[in-house]
Amino acid sequence: MDDVLRVGLVGAGPWARDVHAPGIADHPGTRLAAVWARRAEAARAVAEPYGAEVSSTPDDLLSTVDVVAFAVPPSVQAEVAERAALAGKHLILEKPLASTVDEAERVAGAVATSGVAALMMLTRRYAPETRELLTELHRLGGWRGGSAVWLADALLAERNANSRWRHEQGALADVGPHVLDLMDAALGEITEVLAAHRSEDGLWQVLLAHRGGATSTVTMSLSLPVRPTVNELTVFGAHGYRALGARTSTAADCFAALLDDLVAMVHSGTVTHECDVRRGLHLQRVLAAIRAELDKHH
To answer: What kind of fold does domain 5-123+251-275 have according to CATH?
Structure first.
C-alpha cells in the first residue's frame, strides 16, 4: 500500500460534495480515487474536480481503493459497509451507523472480523474545543447531571428537501447520534432511557441515565425556524458548571482531524478509537431504546 491512501466515496449529496470530497482531496495522507452514487451524473460532478474515477457499482469502487467513505442514508451505508469491511477496506462511516441494531451489529461484526479501521463521522468529537472540554471533565469527575439542546431548521431548508430518510426519521436519527455521543462522552455511558417524548412537529425530549449515577436531558428538533442554530451542551456537579457552546471549528476542520486519526491508525495497525464502529453500534442501541420508550406510551 502506498503511503497515500486511495479513498472511494459512496454518495454525491451536499455533504459528499462540500465536506468529504474536498477534505479527502486536500489531506496529505489521502487521495480521492473513486466516487459511486446511484445517479452517475451526480457522482461525476463530485469526482471530476479532483480527477477521481466514477465507479459503475459499489463493488467496482471497492476493487480500486484502500478506504471507503460514506455520505449516504443509513440503510445504504449498512449494506455496502459490511461488504467493504469484509473486503478489507477501512471505513469512514456516517451517522447513524445503520437503520436497525441488527444492521449495525453486522457492520461492526464485519469490521471486527477483518481487523480494519472504521471511524464514525461524529463531527464535533474531532474538534479541539470538544476534546479539551472532555479531557477536563474526565480529569475532574464528580459530574451529576447535564443538558443538551440542539435546535435547527434543517428540515425546513431546501438543501434537505430530497433527503427522504431525514424527513422520515427526523432529528432523532440525524442529530441524535451527535448529541447522544457528546452527552455519553461527557457524563459516562448511557445505560437507560428513563423517558422519551416527541411532539407532532418533531420536537424530541429525552431523559437519560448514565453509568455512575448521573442523569441528563436532551432536547432536539430540526423543524424549528431557529437562526442561528442552537447547539448547547452543559454539565454540572461537584466542580460547578461547564458548557460546550456554538462550534468554533468548522465541519471541514473536524473532517481533517478525522482523516489525521484514520491515516495514523491505518499506518500503525491500530483499530481502536473513541469514535470507532463500536461507538456507532452503542449509539444505534441507544436510538433503539429511545424509540422503544416512546412506543410504550403510544
So the answer is: Rossmann fold (3.40.50)
